[in-house]
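Subject: for your reference before the review

Hello V.,

The reviewers asked for a structural picture of the protein, and I figured it would be easier to keep everything in one thread rather than splitting it across files. Below is the amino acid sequence we used in the manuscript, unchanged from the supplementary table.
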Amino acid sequence: MSQEQLSYVTVNVFTGERLAGNQLAVVKVDEKCELSKKEKQKIARQFNFSETVFLYHNASADPPIAEIFTPVN
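And here is what came back from the structure prediction:
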């Protein structure tokens, strides 16, 4: 990965209450960005949430493609 910046949001899932539930990171990956599995694993470890989702969306893929990583292999 180059020095690109990736957009992300963190959300609480499995709850209807704010600041409760499980934290989840959703990382938007531009179709031009190439991340290796090792890099995605490092990002997931950095967030250290139960799961980190990498969301790929481009014109040729509908619906978006999602990959899920945990902080440990």
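For the response letter, the relevant points are probably these. The first helix runs from residue 37 to 47. The chain has a mean pLDDT of 88.

Happy to draft the paragraph if you're swamped.

O.
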